[in-house]
Structure formats: structure tokens, C-alpha cells
Write a structure and sequence with these properties.
The protein is mainly alpha-helical. It is built from 14 helices and three strands.
């Protein structure tokens, strides 16, 4: 273990500046207590009181800030000046907006930028800061049924893993991280905040603490991912760590907890190195896990439990799945669950429940799978990750 080494001090990220209420990044008369910016700060505080996570508040704030900056450039600085016509004009602007590469914003991006405004102005109406809600009748862009994003095949996965240099602490760390992402499909924020005590080596499970929606969940890890986590802990983490009190599982090059945005970049570089013609970061592993387990025969409710989705659509209710049952399904349907190469059904344990065995509403498999994949695509936009 390294001792006497000062931790590397990173420059504050855009997110850190947002969370610190850095008003240099925005217009909207920040000093005006009745202005849009000050009202936004009160709204974000309200979300915190209601139990929203820091990630959820950050996502809401960054999109509301986008609108405030747009409105400020057009002389709209106070909530009372925002009408339905103003919001519809903003919607049209988003529709015609072109990114640096010349492409328009996706429908999901447009929806993500409008949805927080509906909550913001609804709250302003409720607390009587404005007489009526200008966003009440604003229609969100219609979702488009899309073909699934490119995901990794089993051969792709093995190529990416094989190219990692295991002779360095960083290489061993990256291999362990990708194995965990592949095995569990956890979100990048969940991976970045894992602690060493969240891995249960005896039960071969990992505990996600305070995931999206501040919900805990227990996930099967599989023998293969567990093996690489053990290798990382025994050989690499001890070389990266400088603070023995820090229980964060995966550490950065300087021994600090990982920044989620930086984490995506690291994982994306590992995938690019394999020259597969597929791009993505942490979320690509999440999508790959879900797709391969679906192809392996897992039913939609088990995938939903793995991903930590509260639901897949507003009209479908999902039963909770016991961890033992989830482990059985994971072992049977996930190609990377075992350290051995899977034979023709030789590794499939018996007794795993199928959809027909489980209580609850019966789902149309095609609609449920389409909803699941669409929800995964929407997460990419929400998390700000190009995957």
C-alpha cells in the first residue's frame, strides 16, 4: 500500500459546479430572488426534501438551466413571464437544434429536456409563485419504437476482456469492473459507489445500496465476475489505495473514488481497443447483459429485477424476485455467469421459475421486451452517457 502520498486533486467537473450552485454557468439574473434561477434553486431544494437523489436533482437542474439560459437570451427572466407559447417556442427550438456533428436532438433528448420543466412549473403553481401552470398542457414528443442499439455478442465480450493488460493494477481493475458490469448490468453510478463490503463472496452476490430511486437491491454476481473481483482486491487495489479508511471498491489511478463520467470514458476506450465497430461505455454492458439474458431464455421480470427498474411501463406491475431464484435464472441464462465455457445445457440448474409459474399479470412478450429495450435507451440520455 502506498503511504505518504497526497491524493490527486481533480478540477471540479461541470456537475460539481452545478451542485455547488455556480452561477457563472447560467443567465437568468441569479441575484434576483423572484427570478427563474432563484426559483429553480428552491425547486431543487424541494426535490431534496422529498427524497430525490443527488443524481436525480442534478439531472433536473441541468435541463432546467438549459431552459433558463435559452429564456434569458430572449428577455424572459421571471416565472410570471413564461407562458404556454414560450414553452412551445422552446420545444420548436429543441426540434430544430443541431449538435456539433450536425445531427438533431433525438426524441428521447427532447423529452428529457422538457419533462423536468413540467415538474418545475407544476411546483411553482402549487406554491403560488405563478397563478397557472404554463406547462400543464404541453405535449411531450412521441416516443419512437426503435430497433435495439448494437450490443456486444459473447465473442465481442471475450475479445474486449482478452485485450486488457492484466500485468498492471489499472488493467486488473478495468477487467474486474467490466466483468461486474457484464454480470450484473448495474448502472455506472452504482459501480462507482460500490464498497468492498458490498461483495458477499460466500453467497456470490453484490449489494447495490441506494440505487436509482434510493432503492437497495441484491444481485447475483456469478463465479466469473467474483473471481476477477477477488483478483483485483488481492493484487491491484492494495497498490492503488492510499487511504485505508476508504472502503470504495474500485479506485482511480490516484487512489480516489471514481468519477462516473471518467468511468464511462475508461470503459469506452477498452471497447474501442477491440475494434468491434461498436461504440459505448458502461451502459453498453448494461444493455448487453439484458439482451443476452433475454436471448438465453430469462423472462422479462427477472431482467427487470436485475436492472432495478421500478416498472417497464405504467400499466405493468412486476412481482419481486427472490435472490435465490434470480441466481438460478442468472446462472442458466447469462453466458458469463460461470468461469467454465457453457455446454449444451450442462450448466443449467433446475428449478428456476418461468414467467408462467410466477403470480401476477401475464405480459405480451413482444411488448414487454420492446418496452424494456426502450427504457434502456432512454437511460442513456438521462444519464448523459453516449452508449
Amino acid at each position: 500500500m502506498r503511504t505518504g502520498v497526497r491524493p490527486y486533486t481533480h478540477k471540479p467537473s461541470t456537475r460539481a459546479k452545478f451542485m455547488a450552485a455556480d452561477t457563472r454557468l447560467i443567465g437568468g439574473a441569479p441575484g434576483d430572488l423572484r427570478g427563474l434561477f432563484a426559483a429553480m434553486r428552491r425547486y431543487i431544494e424541494h426535490l431534496g426534501v422529498k427524497g430525490y437523489t443527488s443524481q436525480g436533482r442534478y439531472n433536473a437542474e441541468r435541463y432546467i438551466r438549459d431552459f433558463i439560459a435559452w429564456a434569458d437570451a430572449r428577455g424572459v427572466t421571471h416565472p410570471q413571464q413564461v407562458s404556454r407559447a414560450v414553452l412551445e417556442r422552446y420545444q420548436r427550438w429543441l426540434y430544430h437544434y443541431r449538435k456539433r456533428d450536425g445531427n438533431p436532438l433525438s426524441v428521447s433528448s427532447q423529452r428529457s429536456k422538457i419533462t423536468p420543466l413540467k415538474g418545475y412549473f407544476k411546483w411553482l403553481t402549487r406554491v403560488a409563485e405563478i397563478p397557472a401552470n404554463p406547462a400543464a398542457d404541453i405535449d411531450l414528443p412521441r416516443k419512437i419504437r426503435r430497433l435495439p442499439r448494437a450490443v456486444l455478442t459473447v465473442a465481442d465480450v471475450e475479445r474486449v476482456m482478452a485485450l486488457v493488460d492484466l500485468g498492471t493494477p489499472v488493467g486488473l481493475r478495468d477487467r474486474a469492473m467490466m466483468e461486474v458490469l457484464y454480470a450484473t448490468g448495474m448502472r455506472r453510478m452504482e459501480l462507482a459507489t460500490l464498497e468492498t463490503t458490498d461483495i458477499d463472496f460466500e453467497r456470490v452476490v453484490v449489494l447495490i445500496r441506494q440505487g436509482k430511486g434510493q432503492k437497495d437491491r441484491l444481485l447475483p454476481l456469478g463465479e466469473r465476475a467474483l473471481h476477477w473481483v477477488r483478483q483485483y482486491l488481492e493484487q491491484a487495489r492494495v497498490q492503488l489505495a492510499w487511504n485505508s479508511a476508504d472502503k470504495t471498491l474500485f479506485l482511480g489511478n490516484e487512489g480516489n473514488p471514481l468519477n462516473p463520467m471518467w468511468l464511462s470514458t475508461v470503459i469506452a476506450k477498452r471497447i474501442d481497443a477491440a475494434e468491434l465497430g461498436k461504440r459505448g461505455g458502461c451502459h453498453l454492458w448494461r444493455h448487453t447483459m439484458a439482451t443476452l439474458m433475454l436471448e438465453g431464455g430469462a423472462d422479462i421480470r427477472h431482467i427487470q429485477a436485475m436492472l432495478g427498474h421500478a416498472d417497464i411501463s405504467s400499466t405493468q406491475i412486476y412481482t419481486q424476485v427472490a435472490i435465490r431464484q434470480l441466481q438460478q435464472v442468472h446462472a442458466r441464462t447469462h453466458p458469463g455467469a460461470s468461469r467454465r465455457v457453457r455446454g449444451d445445457g450442462a450448466d443449467a440448474p433446475g428449478g428456476a421459475q418461468t414467467l408462467a409459474d410466477m403470480p401476477g399479470p401475464q405480459l405480451d412478450p413482444n411488448d414487454a421486451v420492446a418496452d424494456l429495450l426502450e427504457a434502456l435507451d432512454d437511460e442513456v440520455i438521462e444519464d448523459g452517457e453516449c452508449a
